[in-house]
Amino acid sequence: MTHADWIETYGRAWEERDPEAAAALFTEDAVYRSAPLRPPTLGSDGVRDYWTQVTAGQSDVRIRFGTPISVRDKVAVEWWTTMRVEGTEVALAGCFVLRFAPDGRCEELREYWHAEEGHREPPDGWGV
Questions:
Q1: Domain residue extents for the chain
Q2: Contact 38, 54 (CB under 8 A)
Q3: Does domain 3-117 have CATH number 3.30.1330.10?
Q4: Using an 8 Å Cβ cutoff, are 25 and 13 in contact?
Q5: Which of 35, 62, 103, 122 is the most core-located residue (most Cβ within 10 A)?
Q6: Residue 18 and residue 85: Cα distance in Å, rounded?
Q7: pLDDT-based confidence at 127, cuts 50/70/90?
């Protein structure tokens, strides 16, 4: 699986709120940091449990990715998500910093994001 395939599959898993598909993208000993100051979620089983919890109240999820920046086994990519959380429209803008295992699964995900209520589209020039 290429890095671009991984990113596309991750996005599809989020839009479909599919914890099993998300967990399959990570190694058994992965480190998943959903925010810089939170403790990490550990392993693909931890990712499954985390996703089950956080996606439960989400609906109408639409995620877009910018152009990834890759250096060997590391990738950074911006993302923009619009969705409803418990019925409230929310926009999230963020960035993943990813490190991949030789088999194409993710060994480490660090996520930085900002959320605001309401529907917002990315600004001109976003994601390039």
A1: 3-117
A2: no
A3: no
A4: yes
A5: 122
A6: 16
A7: confident
How many Å apart are CA 90 and CA 85, to the nearest integer? 7
**pLDDT cut 70: percent of the chain above it:** 100
- Give phi and psi for 19, each to the nearest 5: -60, -35
| Radius of gyration in angstroms for the set of CA atoms belonging to the chain, rounded to a whole number | 14
pTM attached to this predicted model: 0.93
Pairing of the two strands 74-85 and 58-65: antiparallel
In tens, the pLDDT along 38-90 reads 999 999 999 999 999 999 999 999 999 999 999 999 999 999 999 999 999 99
Per the structure block, which two tokens stand in for 1? Answer: 């699986």
